[in-house]
Amino acid sequence: MKTPTTPEGWAIRLSKLIKAFHDIHGLDRFPIDVSQVAGEFSRQVFPDAPITMINGGKFSKKFDGGKFSKKFEGMLMPCPKGTGEWGIIYNDSITSPGRINFTLSHELGHYLMHRHLHAEGIQCSRRDMLRWNSEYGKMEAEANTFASFLLMPLDDFREQISGEKISVDLVRHLADRYQVSLTATILKWLSITDERAMIVVGRDGFIDWAWSSKALIKSGIFYRAKQVVTPLPEQSLAAARNPLVDNEAGKLHPAGIWVGNEEVHEMTILAKDGRSISMLLYLSTPSVTASMKNTTNLRTEYV
Ligand SMILES: [Zn+2]
User: Staple 90 to which of 74, 145, 289, 296, CB 3.0 to 4.6 Å?
Assistant: First the structure.
């Protein structure tokens, strides 16, 4: 059998095996047990380089560009004894099962696609797990694409959202089904939807990062990579953090509140630690002229 050459190809190969196994044994297909898949698949397909250890570990900082600056989320490492075996370690200070699952899957992606290029192993930060654009680093984007397709196969994801309006309830249902974080679920939806939509993650009143669907980028509405600190819009649900409002059902804002100078439906999940996850839906269908005009206003540098 030919070796896949893309992250999607690898994920589809594994998904088929997992589905066949579960069908035969009458088991639920989801959530996918990445530890089990990684061990069994690597042993069968790469008997000289199996993954023999998956563990939580303690590490606080990632060595990055000459200084320790970022927290580790996970790493892929060769056995120090030179046996050819590989291990995956995730940061055991992470308590969210969804984040752990995504991290394991991301590292399995590195194992399948990148271990030959990095015989010394690969260390990944939280930020690396959120890098979905090739401009941020091809390898991290590939590992994330693999993880997303492995944990949330397109056939099932499409079936789940078919005929449904995107909502926080639907996102929670999907995150539960696949045991991934709300953020990973929203990114998955954004990567396949035809709708004009964006995720904005806020922290302590500022925009931490944001990501737009393809259709929204086409109309010139997006936030750029972090250069300048940008506050959350004052009138947004994410900034107001009003406990008396149904933030998750959301609010239709008039043009001028969020980037893009259009009406925006904002649905926001507030976390206790000062973070927020907002889904922004741009509901109008702008003319080409309007989108061109928007482009000039929206090159806000940040995230
Ligand atoms: Zn990585």
Answer: 74
Q: Same domain, yes or no, for 215 and 137?
A: no
Interval between CA 59 and ligand 1 midpoint (Å): 15
Q: Are 231 and 207 in contact (CB under 8 A)?
A: yes
Residue given tokens 């069994």 in the structure block: 40
| CA 216–ligand 1 middle distance (angstroms) | 27
Q: Which helix or strand (DSSP H or E) is residue 45 part of?
A: helix 34-45
Q: How far is the CA of 76 from the centre of ligand 1 (A)?
A: 8
What are the start-end ranges of the H helices in 47-181?
A: 97-114, 126-129, 138-151, 154-161, 168-178
Tell me how many domains the chain contains: 2
Which structure tokens are listed for 77? 């490492």
Q: Are residues 130 and 232 in the same domain?
A: no
Residues 145 and 254 in one domain: no
Per-residue confidence (pLDDT) for residue 125, from 0 to 100: 86
| pLDDT confidence of residue 111 | 97
Residue 225: give the domain boundaries: 193-297
Other beta carbons within 10 Å of 243: 7
Residue 115 shares a structural domain with residue 221 = no
Question: How many CB atoms neighbour CB 291 within 10 A?
Answer: 16
In angstroms, the CA 265 to CA 33 distance is 35
Q: State the distance from the centre of ligand 1 to the C-alpha of 123, rounded, in angstroms.
A: 6
Residue 102, pLDDT above cutoff 80 = yes
* Size (the chain), residues: 303
Whether the Cβ atoms of residue 202 and residue 123 lie closer than 8 Å to each other? no
d(CA 105, CA 97): 12
Question: Measured in angstroms, how far is the CA atom of residue 289 from the centroid of ligand 1?
Answer: 40
171 belongs to a structural domain: no
CA angle 126, 155, 90 (to 5 degrees): 20
> Is-contact 257 235, C-beta < 8 A?
yes
Rounded to 5°, angle at Cα 20 from 17 and 24: 140
Q: Does this model's pTM top 0.70?
A: yes
